[in-house]
């Protein structure tokens, strides 16, 4: 058994014993990094998963592993950040995408994926301005809109558009130096350069670029040193009329802890947004994707998908891929009923609304408490904090009033609720770990 098969077997058993939401949270993007004679190193995507697996699931995992391979006596957990992703957990659509449809080769110099081009980008009123600005920039880089700043929610085409600009420029002027990267990659380059005392060479490398494209710039928030480097690079390029293109999940003014001077640079160019696609556009996107993937899916099914998945183009594609996998395995197209069954989870997942039941369930699941413990009058520390987090989530996600939340939690005074909400907001601001913790809970709320 290879290490990947071994881990798949472990996941398959664990999946029976815990809820799908828990499974998704703790075991997504895990894998076996290394197998030695007597032990294994399990890779996990973040510190939080690491602690959780070590403290809560270690025994279960070890037992299962021993059952599969009697030699294994010990497990270590190691955080491996994405990019070095390990074997897929089943049901993970992004992973299925990659399994079934291997990405085109990403260009090592530009980091561009040739799959993202204008020709396969559908334009509707939701992204029209961003598209127009992007094509204009690709025709006359550095001259017209500089910087170009595109913002919008997850899975709505920012990366596609940014890369299309890069690909188009390279196509028309192969000698131009284009570089695409995420702001996380930029950060890690800066950090490495500082560590290796090679900042000067990194600087000169960046200053030779003609078109610099940085994706998800919101991740520079709070990273002062990186922001400073970026500011200097930005100015150097800008003053030489080199093109800069940026994306973010929100407008510049709403990126927290972004230096003022950077914010005003971003605001000095063209800012466009991408909102949500309407039904006809969603259908058109699905159609172009079926053509690209060379498969036939009935109009009825495509309409069913487009009318149910509204907020995320990546999920639209995910739904299609689920049907393609079915088609490949069964050698026939699914009919509408089969499609509905196959897509049930994806569609449920895409209806993203929170309610009080989901909040209570997710918080108590997350901290392994009984739901009624959250409402009890207990002053135990293990209960007080989750209770405060639940109150915070009522406030943030449901916009409930403080007195309402107080009544819900066993008649607590509204000042107690205000205190809890302030305390948790502050912790989130000051501590990345708490932020991650709350995000994981939110993910659950929106996936049940
Ligand atoms: P974001 O960066 O905003 O999270 P992506 O650019 O990664 O989103 O888009 C998610 C998926 O949806 C990609 O596979 C992309 O090709 C596809 N997509 C997004 N917008 C469009 C569009 N307008 N036309 C065709 N495909 C699109
Ligand atoms: Mg993106």
Structural overview:
33% of the residues are buried. α5 packs parallel to α6 and α15 (356-366) packs antiparallel against α17. The chain contains 20 helices and eight strands. 57% of the residues lie in helices and 10% in strands. The chain starts with a helix and ends with a helix. The protein has helices spanning 3-17, 20-27, 47-68, 93-100, 128-139, 158-172, 183-195, 199-207, 224-239, 260-267, 279-292, 299-308, 313-330, 336-350, 356-366, 371-375, 381-398, 402-408, 414-430, 432-445, and strands at residues 31-35, 39-44, 74-79, 148-152, 178-182, 211-215, 243-248, 270-274. The longest helix has 22 residues, at 47-68. The strands form two sheets. It has a five-stranded parallel β-sheet with strand order 5-6-7-4-8, with helices on both faces. The protein has a three-stranded mixed β-sheet with strand order 1-2-3, covered by helices on one side. The protein folds into four domains: 3-89, 2-Layer Sandwich (GMP Synthetase, Chain A, domain 3), CATH 3.30.300.180; 118-274, Rossmann fold (3-Layer(aba) Sandwich), CATH 3.40.50.300; 279-350, Orthogonal Bundle (Helicase, Ruva Protein, domain 3); 356-445, Chromosomal Replication Initiator Protein Dnaa, Chain: A (Orthogonal Bundle). Bound molecules: adenosine-5'-diphosphate (ADP) and magnesium ion. Residues 158-159, 215 line the site of magnesium ion.
